[in-house]
Amino acid sequence: MHAYRTHHCGELTADHTGLEVKLSGWLHRRRDHGGVMFIDLRDHYGLTQCVFDPDFPAFAVVERLRSESVITVTGEVLARASDLINPNLATGEIEIRVKEAHIQSEASELPLPVFGEPDYPEDIRLKHRYLDLRRETLHKNMGLRADVTASIRQRMVAQGFTEYQTPILTASSPEGARDFLVPSRLHRGEFYALPQAPQQFKQLLMVSGFDRYFQIAPCFRDEDARADRSPGEFYQLDIEMSFVTQEDVFQAIEPVMRGVFEEFCDWDGKTRHIPNGPFPRIPYAEAMAKYGSDKPDLRNPIELADVTDYFKDDALTGFGIFAKIIAGGGTVIAIPAPQSAAKHSRKFFDEMDKWAKKEMQAPGLGYARLREAETGGVESQDPVLKNFKPDHLASLLASLGLGAGDGLFFSAGKKSDAYKLAGAARLKVGEQLGLVEENIFKFCWIVDFPMYEYDEEAKKIDFSHNPFSMPQGGMEALISAQTDADILDLKAYQYDIICNGVELSSGAIRNHRPDIMLKAFALAGYGPEIVEAEFGGMLNAFRYGAPPHGGIAPGLDRMVMLLADASNIRDVTLFPLNQQARDLMMNAPSAVSETQLRDLNIRLAPTPKS
How far is 392 from 449, CA to CA, in rounded Å? Predict the structure, then answer.
């Protein structure tokens, strides 16, 4: 018999009754029933109930042990009585009558419990992450992550992609976030950078004649933490393809994304699905107009509406506040709230206004409740619509598809600010009214991103999304853009894939032509000397024959987060940093010795006096 186990703790069934077995695992839970001791023994695969009779030596061996001690037991598999079967446990039909027990490792008093998974402070959980990972929910999440990663690899290979590994030590690159820098010992005063993404390398692979590349790639960005973003590092399914159009990328990647999500839709007993048919393709401008966001959650049926024209003439509205905002160049956006007036009191609407002021730092959120008028039709006694001319009000409500019992909110101000508040309010209203569809994954592609935007701080035109994307229309479109308005109208072959309001990835058809790239940068005010200095390596490679190519990089962490129905990305990450980007378990970052600093030709600046 094996030294530690003949079976694992999730394997035994009634078919094994009468067999002598050996199991090893952690003492998960102990129960005493009339002198007989029951222990749930746990390993990676599951739980098995073990019975210790007080007449057996094994009883005395285990009796004094704390939870989470590691033991090996030998005993006979017994069938449970029919009324004692646990249908929720894979081994619920059997138990082990233990004859022998050996202690492999005794546990000290635990800093946090494993059984029951009660809430515990984040700092304790992260400091003792190895205990946190023993808990059922996190342990399952990590198994899901491994299974999703394996599925992705199989699906990518089946689609004709080949996995290659790109460097971890590379050059610093201005890709939007701060780099993690690594000082060079051999080259005084010079630094490597950890890659924010393998972007340039995967494009250079295409230039090198490879065709369909993928990699489960680690990426490093010195960014602040968010619920859907880890500080420091994350993983992405990095993809690049040669001789492809935007549609070719969609046709290659959509089956992979759909397949992975369909495979794990029912994970851990959940029942979810994905609508049939291709993922909707939504132009950026349409997404912003309908949802106030380029990351729309399509489970929410509410669509925004620009109602600026209805409020221009205060003689028709009797509401001069919006007319004044519009006269100053502002916009008014309506957020429909179906049946909110019928189902909720005024408190609901006032709370939404308070939310806008507190959480969104907005001046406020106007609202109107709709009811049947005594004279027929629909009216509102709330200030925004109270004094509307009846025909004007009827026209507004008809355009929104609203009637008695409905409500609506209004966001007014500078166009970008109005849409930002309206987009957030749409999500909030949908949640509060229970309109968000459950148990479904709704994907979409956002396409036709603007190539450029106006930078209010710098007071200049700059790239809006990805400077290395191919502009729609190519060189001809760039040359034809004579005015700022023309430039801001230019679109790029850029696309994002969104699921349930979460951005899983950005991608693009790349600009593989040096002449087009230099012209694109020139329109944003960057001369050729800047482009050569910052991106000369890739630019030179393109001068020796570069294929048209494009790619995308879905975030693995976010995919698993959605499939696990987790609220924070750390719940699908093995050893995450905390909100301050510290590893409490390994005590990183930490000070290093003077000798190490000398080897790297580094001297620390004195700590500033407080």
Answer: 35
DSSP string, 39-92: EEEEETTEEEEEEE-TTSHHHHHHHTPPTT-EEEEEEEEEEPPGGG--TTSTTT
* DSSP conformation class of 606: P
Helix (H) or strand (E) holding 374: none
Name the token pair of 137. 């929910």
pTM score, whole prediction: 0.93
Q: Give the pair of three-digit tokens for residue 578.
A: 């905390």
What distance in Å separates the CA atoms of residue 471 and residue 491, rounded to the nearest whole number? 6
**Cis omega (within 30 of 0) on the bond before 589?**
yes
Give me the half-sphere count of Cα atoms (radius 13 Å) on the Cβ side of residue 551.
29
Select the more confidently predicted residue: 375 or 110. 110
In 68-200, DSSP assigns E strands to: 70-79, 94-105, 162-163, 181-183, 191-193
Place 360 in a pLDDT band, splitting at 50, 70 and 90: very high
Q: How far apart are CA 188 and CA 211, in angstroms?
A: 38
Residue 356 makes CB contacts below 8 A (sequence gap 6+) with 362, 364, 365, 411, 421, 425
Kindly tell me the burial class for residue 534, based on how many C-beta atoms sit within 10 Å of its own C-beta (0-12, 13-18, 19 or more).
middle
How far is it, in rounded angstroms, from Cα 93 to Cα 13? 6
When pLDDT is averaged across residues 203-223 and rounded to a whole number, the result is 96
User: Is it the case that residue 609 has pLDDT exceeding 80?
Assistant: no
Q: Decide: 504 and 559 in contact? Cβ < 8 Å.
A: yes
Q: Assess contact for 556 and 236: CB atoms under 8 A.
A: yes
Q: What angle do CA 103, 105, 106 make, to 5 degrees?
A: 90
The yes-or-no verdict on residue 175 having pLDDT over 60 is no
What pLDDT is attached to residue 78?
98
Angle of helix 528-542 relative to helix 514-523, nearest 10 degrees, comes to: 160
With 0-12 / 13-18 / 19 or more C-beta atoms within 10 angstroms meaning exposed / middle / buried, residue 408 is buried
Token digits of residue 297: 């959650």
Q: What are phi and psi of 171, to 5 degrees?
A: -90, 150
Angle at 477 between CA 475 and CA 479, to 5 degrees: 70
